[in-house]
Design brief:
The chain has about 150 residues and is an alpha/beta fold. The chain has helices at about 1-5, 25-30, 45-55, 70-75, 90, 105-115, 120-135, 140-154; strands at about 15-20, 35-40, 60, 80-85, 100. Helix 5 links the parallel strand 4 and strand 5.
């Protein structure tokens, strides 16, 4: 929220969406949220699709996430990702190509948000992320598994 508030993003809205696992935390977020910040909790599947379709980009800044699907879901929708430069996000976001990897610092996140106001850049990164997401498809997984099995049996 602080990054969005610090960025020069007139005309944009930040939507925080997810499961309402900790009501006190959500209340804190609501207190921080100002103009153009909307918080949606317990989002049904059909609403996720709409939120993803309408987004310019997706921001994914997890703490202690084992393997977040958000960057792959963003790719399926041809959206770039601003992701924290930690853990498996490094495997699913290619910095400067499918989005941006950032330190968990508001100023850096704000600058990357501003960069993605450039529609051409956002669309190019989104296309790249779509291609990258194909690496995580069931078909791609099975091809790699088959190759490994063949390699091991030789």
């Amino acid at each position: 929220i602080k990054a969005f508030q610090d960025a020069d993003l007139d005309g944009f809205e930040l939507v925080l969406a997810g499961a309402n696992a900790d009501p006190e935390y959500v209340d804190e977020l609501r207190e921080m949220a100002g103009e153009n910040v909307r918080i949606e909790t317990d989002v049904p599947d059909e609403r996720w699709g709409s939120l993803q379709k309408d987004a310019r980009a997706m921001v994914f800044l997890p703490e202690n996430e084992d393997f977040g699907l958000v960057p792959i879901e963003a790719g399926a929708r041809s959206k770039p990702v601003i992701g924290v430069d930690e853990g498996t996000v490094r495997e699913t976001v290619i910095d400067g190509e499918t989005g941006f990897l950032v330190a968990p610092e508001a100023e850096e996140i704000a600058r990357k948000m501003e960069r993605l106001t450039d529609i051409e850049l956002a669309e190019e990164m989104g296309k790249n992320n779509r291609a990258n997401a194909e690496n995580y498809s069931w078909e791609s997984f099975m091809q790699r598994l088959d190759s490994k099995i063949e390699e091991m049996s030789e």
